[in-house]
Amino acid sequence: MMRVVLRLVLLLVVLVAATPLVALVAATPLLAGAFKASIERLPTDQGEPFELVLSLAGRDSLEPPNVTPLSKDFDILDRRKRSRMDTVAGQRVEVNEWVLTLVAKHAGRLTIPALSVGGETSASIDLTIAPGAAIEPPDDEPLSLAVDVQGTPPFFLQSEIPVVVRMFDRVGALEATAGQPEADGASFTPDGGLKTYSRVFGRQRFRVVELRYVMRPQRTGTIQIPSVALKASIPTSPPGAQEQARTLGRPAMPWLGGGFNAGRKVTVYSNPVEVEVRPRPAGVTGWFLPARSATLRESWSRPPGEARVGGALVRTLRLEVKGASPGQLPPLAAPEVEGVRQYADEGKPEATSVDGGVGAVVETRVSVVPTRAGTVTLPAISVPWWNIAANRAETATLPAVTLTVAASADGSAPRAQASPVAVPAPSPADDGPQDGWNVRDVLAVLAVTVLVVGTVFYSGRRRRPAEAERAPDPTYPGAVRPVGSGRMAGRPALAPLDVEAAARALDVACRSNDAAAAHRAWLTLARAMGGMGGEAPRTPGMAQAVAELNQHLYAGDGTAWDGRALRKALAAERRAAKARNGRKARGLQPLYPTSR
Fold it and tell me: What separation in angstroms does the CA of 213 have from each of 190, 191, 216, 262, 522?
């Protein structure tokens, strides 16, 4: 009897071991076309490097992708590979990515051609590169810092202006720390993390480190960005070594100065930059949207001709704007009209490519539920914007839509609904037939059977003491990497933000009803509580107060701003942030807690 049980256990173990292989084979058709190309950040002009990501899902390739076709229009500054796990068609698969740092050789409409790896080919990508000044070190020093304002003028009040800080290093700095840009009359928000690549200027090879920010002007006129300081430690070397290395086009070796820790403390300053900010054009009222193009589009879940009393039609409104950032896009709303009930979700603006250039897009889904039979006309939807290329006001418009609504199947009127109609999202796991057992169900039952049989068979074995299992392994003690060593050495670092100071600044701005100062203080506080990019309010009250502040700053209705609502919402926002941080500190509770 025992021999039969052992054979059964062995057979089931083999079946369980084959489960990943069966799942991979089942997922293979779903991974067709798994090699894709994407751009993480579109360049604003010719001199700006950008990253092209080539992703291969479900498998790896011993040979890297063939990137030779890129050399026609682009220079490859850096290459690296990374791996991550992702969910593709309901399956957890490994995704291998090759990241290329590119810079355009010339301006104009360019195409990233189709690339291939392992018998698969990616789709081509079209993009438009605006003319721009070439990126070069500001001087002939071994270490230098430059501040560049990107984007194309004119710049208007409350617009979002990209600013980049670049460190040029040709001596191998041991450590470096750069300050954040500041200006009287503007706020600066970090935009992403560090980007590092190598580039040759003349006969010298430089390591370039980039930090990006978003500048938001709070007043018109000339705003000057003072010099930014860079404090660094550069390696020392015997007399003549620097000149010899410079002649050979190589950086000086750190050990020539007497050791890896030897270095000379230096401070360098960037160039000051002036930005001219224009006021809102005369006669423009409401939400001000300066851009290069703006387009409104719509789509329907079903043809509007199929409208029926009580039946929901999902209408998707999409605003695509070229030359604007997500924060500048106005909210989309469908006008109310008799004969239908409309429930709209809150669209979230996102940065994306629009007509091959940098832009933003926002989508709003509206559930349209007719309440009576007959003809119902949904009014036209318009979004005014300012064409900065032609220097005139224009309007993006969706024409009116007329619905011919049929009576419901039973002739009854729709019931009143207290909440919006839910728009279910399609799930990959719902595809295919649902009747009967599939391979995954059978394997799951077999795995449970193996677990039960194994538990019974080995129930007599003695367990190790729980204290021994929890004892730390003395062969792997924890260690802390010293500052200035490892892969992060020499990269400009950002100083931590003071939450209490930012909260006090916001409170003072609210008491004095200073909308511009409150906006700057909120951005600083949000980053301090949630890190880079953590600007989303956590409580509904704070979200409403921030929305009202943005409405006042961007819409420009001429009324005074009252900071009492934002100041009241600040306390609840900070309590929510502390509760969230407390949950992170405590960690996850055990799934099966044991009683004592």
Answer: 4, 5, 10, 33, 16
The first and second tokens of residue 292, run together, are: 């290069």
String of DSSP letters for 505-527: HHHHHHHTT-HHHHHHHHHHHHH
Sheet with 290-291, strands from edge to edge, namely: 290-291, 381-387, 392-398
Q: How many CB atoms are located within 10 Å of the residue 578 CB?
A: 12
Contact 176, 491 (CB under 8 A): yes
End-to-end CA distance of the chain: 39
| Closest to 56 measured CA to CA, from 35, 38, 30 | 35
* Burial of 420 (C-beta count, 10 Å sphere; 0-12/13-18/19+): middle
Question: What order do you get walking across the sheet with 175-178 strand by strand?
Answer: 175-178, 229-234, 264-269
Can you tell me the distance from the alpha carbon of 470 to that of 452, in angstroms, rounded to the nearest whole number? Answer: 26
The interaxial angle of helices 564-586 and 499-511, nearest 10 deg, is 160
Is the entire prediction scored with pTM above 0.70?
no
Phi, psi for 389 (deg, rounded to 5): -75, -45
User: What is the Cα–Cα distance from 306 to 284, expressed in whole angstroms?
Assistant: 40
At 160, give phi and psi (nearest 5°).
Answer: -110, 120
Task: State both tokens at 70.
Answer: 């890129």
Give the dihedral of Cα atoms 512, 517, 521, 522; nearest 10 deg. Answer: 90
259 φ, ψ to 5°? 145, 160
pLDDT in single tens digits along all 596 residues of the chain: 555 555 555 555 555 454 444 444 444 444 445 788 988 777 767 777 888 999 888 777 778 888 989 988 998 888 888 888 887 666 788 888 899 988 888 888 889 999 988 788 898 988 888 776 667 788 878 899 999 998 778 888 877 888 999 999 988 888 888 889 999 999 998 887 788 888 888 778 888 999 989 898 989 999 999 999 999 888 876 545 555 555 555 555 544 444 444 578 889 999 899 999 998 888 888 888 888 899 999 999 988 888 889 888 999 999 999 888 888 888 888 888 899 999 888 788 888 878 767 788 999 999 999 999 999 999 999 999 999 888 889 999 999 999 999 987 665 555 544 444 444 444 443 444 444 455 556 566 666 666 665 655 555 444 444 433 444 433 333 333 333 334 334 444 444 567 888 888 888 888 888 888 888 888 888 877 764 344 567 788 888 888 788 777 766 556 778 888 888 888 888 887 777 665 544 433 333 344 43
Instruction: Identify whether the C-beta of residue 67 lies closer than 8 Å to the C-beta of residue 39.
Output: no
